[in-house]
Amino acid sequence: MPIAGDARWPFPPERKAVVGVVHLPPLPGAPGFQGDFGAVLKRAVADARALQRGGADGLIVENYGDAPFFPQQVGPETVAAMSVVARAIREETNLVLGINVLRNDAAAALAVAAVCQAQFIRVNVLAGARLTDQGVIQPAAAQLLRYRKHLGAEHVAIWADADVKHSAPLAPRPLEEEVDELVHRNGADCVILTGPGTGRAVDGEQLRRVAQVCPVPLVAGSGVTVERLEEVLPWVQAVIVGTAFHRQGDLRQPLEEEAIRRLVQAVRRHG
After folding, report:
1. What is the pLDDT of residues 191-204, one digit of tens each?
2. Which 3 state secondary structure label does DSSP give 100?
């Protein structure tokens, strides 16, 4: 997982990074929106502050509460809401900031990132097609890399999922081949491996196998807990932690500063 001299890797190369997730409640336009965007904004900023106080290195903002998701393109109200949230978090914290617009609106994520000075975006389906509960999701790479060039946002890194959760391939193929094509043919700056669903553990053997061939930083993207760090950390440069930071593991509850601090300290000891 080379990172030396990588201008798009936003963390210190000498240590493992901890990236939290700000799971936004339903935004305007979503079926579950409760009519008070001010409350959504307040909750998001509070979660970001908890991550900073707990010692996290970065965070990803995602419209988790907007299910059911559009497969490709969200509405302008979602882009507007996420921009307001991301800008408020940028002003309130100095954490590395990432944007993920679910289910796979990579162009919207990049636009928000460029305007709000985020350092990276997460793209669930950068290459290859995946069968999901939103239908077949088509890859984003061709349009995304051209749009990044158009915006002059080449500094914004693309973190791409391999064998992304909550989906299935249309035709099975070796994971190592998928990772190779994500990087060399589709421009991924970082590769994320997850378990099959939100909060479910990534397979340690998969991490080991991919780490042997992945030419960019590798990140464990789900199911990371203090108890699993010894299995995960040797193979990755960062961990993304969402569920384990929420009160009682409930994504509807706020993030808990003590849970964040406990895992961050454990990563520092191991990594």
Report:
1. 999 887 676 778 88
2. strand
CATH of the domain at 62: 3.20.20.70
Sign of CA dihedral 157, 163, 167, 170: positive
Whole-angstrom distance, CA of residue 69 vs CA of residue 240:
21
Question: Are the beta carbons of 219 and 236 closer than 8 angstroms?
Answer: yes
Tell me the C-alpha to C-alpha distance, in Å, between residue 51 and each of 120, 160, 172, 184, 188: 17, 23, 37, 33, 26
Predicted TM-score of the model (pTM) = 0.95
Angle, alpha carbons 11-13-15 (nearest 5°): 85
The answer to the question of residue 55 being in a domain is yes
Return the closest-CA partner of residue 269 out of 76, 67, 18: 18
Residue 5, domain member (yes or no): no
Q: Are 60 and 98 in contact (CB under 8 A)?
A: yes
Say how many C-beta atoms besides its own lie within 10 A of residue 198's C-beta: 17
Query: Is the backbone of residue 187 left (phi > 0), alpha (psi -120 to 50) or beta?
Result: left
Q: Judge whether 163 and 126 are in contact, CB under 8 Å.
A: no
| Whole-angstrom distance, CA of residue 247 vs CA of residue 245 | 7
Distances (CA, A) of 183 to 15, 128, 188, 218: 23, 12, 5, 11
Give the domain extent around 248. Answer: 17-270
Query: Would residue 10 count as lying in a domain?
Result: no
Whole-number Å distance between alpha carbons of 159 and 12: 17
| Contacts (Cβ under 8 Å, ≥6 apart) of 133 | 68, 166
**What is the reported pLDDT for 271?**
64
What phi, psi does 256 have (nearest 5°)? -105, 120
Domain total of the chain: 1
